[in-house]
Amino acid sequence: MKFSHSLAIIALLGSQTHGFQLSPSMATMQSRSVSSLSASVAEGSSMDTSLMKQQSPPSPPDMQAYSNGFKTVFNEVSCSLSTPTEGSLPTDLIGTYYKSGPAMFSAGSLPPPKNSLVKPKQPPVPDGEDMSRMVLHPFEGDGAVLAMTFHGHDNIETGEVNTDEAADTVDTKGKVTTRFRYVRTNAFNNERKKGKKLYTGMESTRSNDSGGTVGNDLSLPFYRHHLLNGLNKLRKNTSNTRAVYFGKRLLTMWAGGLPYKVDALALSTDGRSQLGGIIKREENAMSSSAVIDSKRNRILFYGIDEQASGSTLNIYEFNSKFQPIKENDGAVQLELPGLALVYDFGVTENYCVFVQPQLKVNGMQYMLNKEPGKSAALESESALLHIVARPGNKDAGGMKTIEIPFDGMAEANLQIINSYESEDGTIIFDALRSADSGGGSKSSTQWPWASTLGDFQNMSSKKSLWRYEVNPKKGLVSKDCISQDQLYFGVVNSNTSAQKHRYIYAAAGAMGEGVAPPQGITKFDLDTGARESWFPESYEFCGEPMYAERRGDDSEDGGYILSTLFNGKDECSELVVLKANDVAAGPIARVPIGIAVPHGFHGCFASTDDANWTYEQIERRAKLADKMETRGSMWNEVKSDFSGLGLRFDDMEEYFGDLM
User: Fold this and answer.
1) 334 near 395, Cβ under 8 Å?
2) How many Å apart are CA 172 and CA 88, to the nearest integer?
3) What are the φ/ψ torsions at residue 559 (nearest 5 degrees)?
4) Is 70 strand, coil or helix?
5) Which phi and psi angles does 441 have, rounded to 5°?
6) DSSP code of 349?
7) Distance of CA 94 to the CA centre of its chain
8) How many whole angstroms from its chain centre is CA 455?
9) What is d(CA 428, CA 418) in angstroms, rounded to the nearest whole number?
10) What percentage of residues in the chain have a pLDDT greater than 70?
11) Is-contact 69 568, C-beta < 8 A?
């Protein structure tokens, strides 16, 4: 498919309304050039090369080095103090960085505790040695969490530790406390005990080219889970897609199952979470997305119970203490048409925004096996935009549906970066779109998947950055292309989440508009149209950039950008720190992680005081978590406030829900 920078479509469409009444409109369509982006994104300017700032053009990616980032991590990091090998850490960078991603590609490769009643028949083996244990797509790998706590300054100098305690206190000035641990999901524990792969429900889908490069996209596939609802061996909850910290809780998420609650210090697993009981049934599906309303200090989640005849959408809203808001008990439920495979959403002051791609469902295959690759195919039709009043809204649960005009690219697997409402009521959101790049070769579905650029392009969609503007009252939808470059994992400063933002940060491929893996970091200024980028060596690959605020600075780009960087030549990983207002200058510090962390997906940065633990607190909790796991009893799963063990467990549903 050819892509044009001049592509922009505006449409006035008839709409379907539920809950609150908005008048329908006549349909019309017109196109406009990308220079008109100045009116909707950067007034008086557009994204052109004259406003780009970066070092010399990067070299083509070393794909053998990139493919080394899909290797199983056999050794976890309980607690380690890391010092930058280059540069120095700023003293005003304080808080904890979390990142989630698949890290086990050879099933059952972490042996159970020595005193486990069930022993695997064979020990872990290197990736590729036993192909029957290898997953067929990186997304099927078991999830793990990386945590890095920035202490910022010397706690002795600042008086946080008195001189009597100083002798027993580790000097953490300019250092980072690192942890890396697998999420002990039920599926992880089952395969760990057996020493083999037990979950094969997605293998048929992963082995065919249905859905093109979008369906089995290497970075994040559109087909994310088996379509058989509930708790079953066809739907493996790997909890590998997102780590989110809010209200003193750390959750890991995966589309199609409940989130897992993880101890924020030691990364030990507490169990599946029903979010304090607001999710009524364990078999209810949750998405892998969460959005924080930075103005009200609330967090929102959603889940969809998918059926071919119609799907049920549940939206949940929590206050700063992670309690359901009082209005409507923090939840609304409504029906969506057909099979709704929706993996992300936007949040504004009053609404939640969902984009549902149109699917053609094979009724026979859906009835017989519910394998997504056989049961559902993307249609070349307009997607549905659902605008739903939030649980705290006076019209809570009211929904307006508008068709988004089809421009040759299905709005499937959309990553919504941020959304907000303008003063005139227009809903604006920026998103990364995925389009079929024409690949989809079956030969690239075997590990290590992408050792050549051709293999990567056969498994990867073409991505681009777009702005959508919606007038709910008139049913008016417009979309403009901001950049056709290959971009991944777009983020904003979390303090602008659900509010108007000026800057977007994203991981970028090194071949411009060509399909290439995420490697560098790019910043877009939507007010001026300026853009700047930094790219590492050809064998180094950045992941999702994460904005970290600088203590004492409330400007939108006065903080730092954090990203894991995988060195595929030496097979090691670092955390790089860049100034958010000077991305093109490159890292001001590089911190070794101590292991090779696979490429991974989404994370967060917790800058609140409750995420600023000392090294001693983290080490003590990590030692306790290790000790409890070696005991190998179900008591290991009980971490209560009254136990005296220092491990939190806030609601009993999470414990009893994990006893299966």
Assistant:
1) no
2) 13
3) -100, -140
4) coil
5) -70, 130
6) S
7) 22
8) 24
9) 8
10) 84
11) yes
Which residues are CB-contacts of 337 (< 8 A; sequence separation ≥ 6)?
310, 311, 356, 384
What tokens appear for 279 in the block? 């999710």
Place of tokens 């406030």: 641
Kindly state the helix (H) or strand (E) to which residue 548 belongs, with its residue range.
strand 546-548
Strand partners, 521: 507, 534
Q: Which two tokens stand for residue 619?
A: 């080490």
Q: Is the CB of residue 227 less than 8 Å from the CB of residue 376?
A: yes
Of 143, 141, 163, the closest CA to residue 154 belongs to 163
Give the chain's mean pLDDT.
87
Helices (H), 68-111: none
Cα 175–Cα 179–Cα 181 angle in degrees, nearest 5: 170
Q: Which residues pair with 146 in a beta bridge?
A: 99, 180
Beta bridge partners of residue 503, listed in sequence order: 525
Per residue, the 3-state secondary structure of 258-272, as one string, reads: CCEEECCCCCCEEEE
Overall average pLDDT of the 196-216 stretch: 91
**Six token digits for residue 215:** 């369906």
Alpha carbon of residue 330 to chain centroid: 23
Q: Report the pLDDT value the prediction gives residue 126, as an integer from 0 to 100.
A: 94
- Higher-pLDDT residue of 211, 421: 421
CA gap 474, 28 in Å, rounded: 12
- φ and ψ at 653, to 5 degrees? -60, -35
Give the closest residue to 123 by CA, choosing from 134, 132, 110.
110
Measured in Å, how far apart are the chain's first and last C-alpha atoms? 48
What is the rounded CA–CA span in Å between residue 19 and residue 391?
13
What does the pLDDT average to over 587-597? Answer: 98
Counted residue by residue, the chain has a size of 660
How far apart (Å, rounded) are the C-alpha atoms in residues 402 and 136? Answer: 37
- What radius of gyration, in Å, describes the C-alpha atoms of the chain? 24
Q: What is the pLDDT of residue 113?
A: 82
Q: What angle do CA 566, 217, 482 make, to 5 degrees?
A: 85
pLDDT in tens, 483-508: 999 999 999 999 999 999 999 999 99
Q: Which residues contact 315 (CB under 8 A, 6 or more apart)?
A: 300, 301, 302, 331, 332, 333, 352, 388, 390, 391
Q: Give SS3 for 393.
A: coil
Average pLDDT (451-461) is: 94
The predicted structure's pLDDT at residue 119: 83
Q: What span, in angstroms and rounded, lies between the C-alpha atoms of 496 and 557?
A: 11
pLDDT tens, residue by residue, 118-136: 788 888 999 999 999 999 9
Task: Give tens-digit pLDDT for 155-187.
Answer: 544 455 555 555 568 999 999 999 999 999 999
Task: Determine the Cα–Cα distance for residues 571 and 589; give it in Å rounded to an integer.
Answer: 19
In angstroms, rounded to a whole number, what is the distance separating the alpha carbons of residues 613 and 657?
Answer: 29
Burial 338-375 (b: 16+ CB within 10 A, else e): bbbbbbbbbbbebbbbbbbbbbebeeebbeebbbbbbb
The token pair at 510 is 């090194």
